[in-house]
Amino acid sequence: MSRPADLAAEVVAHRVVAPGFKRMELALPRAVRFAPGQFFQLLVHPGREAPLLRRPFAPSEVAERSFAFVYAVVGRGTEALAALRAGASVRVLAPLGTGWTLPARGGRAVLVGGGCGTPSLRVLAEALLRRKVEVHGVIGARSACALLEERAFARLCRKLEVATDDGSKGLRGHAVAAATRLLDSLGPGAAPRLYACGPHPMLRGLAGLAAERGLFCEVSLEERMACGFGACMGCAVRVRADNEDGFVYRRVCHDGPVFAAADLLW
After folding, report:
1. Tens of pLDDT, residues 138-189
2. Residue 16 sits in a domain of what CATH number?
3. Which residues span the domain enclosing 9?
């Protein structure tokens, strides 16, 4: 696993991809190797006080000396980020965290993305296809206009189910219901591995679905991260353990963000 580096990066492209969502592409002075599921911390205004803390994001596209990511404009930090234009400079701390557990070769996988969690699964889908894994996908959003990376997933996945809260596209309902329908449609064959990134209720529901069916399931968690490398303990979550309390704390930024769904205390 590559050690994290703190690098100056240049914004080379920045555009709106859906209402409230933007895609940014960054060029780096040297190559950074991301394992699928790892993330980076971005400092929007180097040398200025506001926003003080870095923001964590996961790449959706990775090249040798550049990468792109999709984010939601939801607060002070991402509003500052959204104002940057091509040519602006930011600082990137990467790669960080522990990523997905990939099969050696072959088999089937179902990737479930919700909202802004969907784009980061694109890197995973591409890595699985290189290992000759049969990839299927589920993406969910509040409405059709908020579906992210739909075209990319339609290209990468053998089967793709779409769910929207308002029923404007695909199944009216949540991504877990769409995942249930997709699993039922797969028929006989190797038991699929489930991988998911999205809102906490979706991940909890998918963990329950995986437990009911005895399926391997990993989820990528999102928590507030001050440092990004495990020093501040601000992103700790409870993980099952064989001790008096029945759990221990693990740091999402260092021990995750990917965890086995069955290990988490939801």
Report:
1. 999 999 999 999 999 999 999 999 999 999 999 999 999 999 999 999 988 8
2. 2.40.30.10
3. 5-96
Length of the chain: 266
d(CA 176, CA 182): 10
Q: What is the pTM of this model?
A: 0.95
CA–CA separation, 54 and 214 (whole Å): 38
- Identity of the amino acid at 3: R
82 and 184 together in one domain: no
Task: Kindly provide the b/e burial profile for residues 144-170, where b requires at least 16 CB atoms within 10 angstroms of the residue's own CB.
Answer: eebbbbbebbeebbeebbbbbeeeebb
What is the token pair recorded at 12?
Answer: 């080379």
- Give Cα separations from 218 to 70, 109, 140, 177 (angstroms): 21, 11, 18, 18
User: What DSSP element (H or E) covers 153?
Assistant: helix 150-156
